[in-house]
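Incident log, structure service

09:12 report received: a user says their structure output differs between two submissions of the same chain.
09:20 pulled the input from the user's history:
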Amino acid sequence: MDFSLEVMAARGSVRSFDGRPIVREKTRALIDAMEACASGPFGGTARFALVSAEAERSDGEGGDGVLAKNGKIGTYGLISKVPAFIVGAISRGPKALEDFGYSMEGLVLKATELGLGSCWIGGLFDRGAAAKALGRREDELLPAVVAIGMPAERRSLAESLTRRLARADSRKAPSVLFFDEVAGRPLSLADSPWLGVFEALRMGPSASNKQPWRIVARGTESKPRFDLYLDEDRAYNSALGEIHIQNIDMGIAMRHFESAARSLGLPGGWSRTEKANEGMAAHLIYISSWV
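09:34 re-ran on a clean worker, output below:
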């Protein structure tokens, strides 16, 4: 499932909702998208459920539709009047977190397409309550949830403060994120057919707005290769144990890059090449390449 540049540009983190339940048609569209978005670029498959913040729990298994009372999946005052959460899990394995980020961001973009607001929550939520609502299995990780609903007309004071602390309205300059052949040499995007792709990536959400993705452009003009790296903040990325939140960010980056390329009719797909590791700084962790 791919999304237009307009949808990616419209997406923004919403922390103040109006509290109204999501209408049935949009609920159905989100549930349908859960299967379409489940598969990640590295082969992992996520499970999702839409969990109401109001209704009583109506089934005992989870993972295939609308669930209910979540035991206050909870956001510790950081999100106001949220009517529902998208809860997801994925089996442990290599690149599972990247697969999860890619899949969940597909649902975030679908929600945007439907006119809904959303906000990724990777740290401050009741992980046990979310696991119970979804029916998490022993071999699965529950990396994050997404708050979802209709945005409030005005931001709450808590949202305004959170956005200020996270610098949510700022983005790193392209010269810091995108490089030509070697890390550190800024990539010229003037008149490039890939300009829209890089801008869609730059506008993607990331934990604490750290934007840890880096792209090194290689190859030729007619046959380019874009190598994707994680510029890891090790202390930050290990703060939640096995849930490496910046690896989730890399999956989000892959979703935005891919959808933008498809939207612009540009060729390619994700694959790994070990040559991308040659001569790179130790703090840059190779993820995948758009070839």
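09:41 both user submissions now match this output. Likely a transient worker issue. Closing.
09:42 reviewer note: Residues 121 and 145 are 5 Å apart (CA to CA). The two ends are 19 Å apart (CA to CA).
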